[in-house]
Amino acid sequence: MELRPFSGTYLTDPAAIWRDLLDGPERVHYAEDLGLWLITRHTDVRNALGDSEAFSNALTLLPIYDMCPEALSIVMEIDAPPTTAAADAPTHTRTRRALRATFPNTSARVNEQYGAIVRRRVDELVSRLVARRGTVVDLVSDFAAELPLLVIVDLLGVPAEDVPAIKNWSDGQIALIWGQPEPEEQVRLARGLLDFWRYCQKLVTLRVQDADAGDDFISKALRYRAGDDEILTENEVASFAFNLLVAGHETTSGLIAHGLDNALSVPSRWERLVENPSGVAAFVEETLRFGPAIDGWLRVTTRDVAIGDTTIPAGSRCLLLLGAANRDAATFAHPDVFDPHRADVREHLSFGYGPHFCIGAALARLEAQVALTHLTAAVPGLRLAPEHASSFKPNVGFRAHNALPVFVETFAQMDDRTPRAA
Ligand code: HEM
């Protein structure tokens, strides 16, 4: 079969394809157009994520296609050591321990250490939106894509003037690895990726001299290594920055945009959140399940793996379709219904599962929850531009809206146009 993720239905309505795959007789599928095995059922995806001996992360961050020789030679210059998402034990165990020690990953610790930064950044962006009331604004470029990037640069202590370059490099990385760029574009994106890596190395070099002073993540990671390469090398700290600057924002941007789309495309949902913002946390969780920001994630088999009647040979790249797993009727009641009150929502696999479970899950939830809560209070009359139809960037991993044009209104639609706090 062919998945054709870069065109047609998969771009506008991937859930329709997931449904066909889940309902079909075969438990796993070989996508000939991609050279990837597709794993879709909740139980199979969860097993694969949890079994790091049979399913390795060694190729997770490498392009899904054969790059042209010129792009490949540029990418080969990137000597970023594998850490967390690109590593298997024992490197994974050691680098994940380092990240867990230096990056808060429970909701209490994230709130305590990063809550003020998140709220300040949300306030700034919401105020800017309020100032544009009465106009049409693209919530992707002017809100969802900005917030997580501004937060992650704050956390890493990266200069604000570098934000546009980081955004370009990071978008480029996602297109280069999980997209389908033409050879000329591959070369351009590969050059950007090399520049990005050199930039992250420089960030660390500059911080090495005064690591004692800083409270930012890079300084903390340098203090954690305590000059001992057995604990962590300086290049591994640079590799953390390289990964976090992308993982820390492209994903959460997607979550915020999906949440806003889910809420605004059915106005009664938005109105309920405006009336009762305490429902935002459950709404964000169902958004994660219903249409994850990463809906496909890669592993490679280290040995032959039998799933049902099919044996996936050793050395095969597998695309774990997290989005499909989240729609599996064997795990979720009425899986194609968006239900913010569902009892089974926490079974979703949108942050992965097991040894590689997302380090930033608590931060992502906090950002999305604070963002939606502030927006419902400040711009309760927000509504999607009437001509809008959702479409996504062509990618097998990251599901990102192209745009979300909205009319900004500070008055709620359903009441007597009483002004709300701005
Ligand atoms: C909605 C937002 C996010 C989504 C949907 C998401 C999703 C994921 C997924 C699917 C994985 C792979 C898990 C696995 O292989 O089992 C992952 C890993 C990871 N994520 Fe996230 N992520 C999000 C936000 C973040 C943020 C904000 C950060 C950091 C600031 C982050 C950092 C990481 C790291 C470091 C890993 C690798 C963990 C490891 O391999 O041990 N993510 N994430």
From TrEMBL:
| Hydrolase in keyword set | no
A Gene Ontology molecular function term of the record: iron ion binding
UniProt keywords, alphabetically: Heme, Iron, Metal-binding, Monooxygenase, Oxidoreductase
- What InterPro entries has UniProt attached to this entry? Cyt_P450, Cyt_P450_B, Cyt_P450_CS, Cyt_P450_sf
Q: Which GO terms describe its biological process?
A: antibiotic biosynthetic process
Recorded hits in Pfam families, A to Z, give: p450 (PF00067)
Which family is this protein grouped under? Belongs to the cytochrome P450 family.
Instruction: Extract the PANTHER family matched here.
Output: P450, PUTATIVE (EUROFUNG)-RELATED
Protein known as = Cytochrome P450
**Species per Swiss-Prot/TrEMBL record:** Phytohabitans flavus
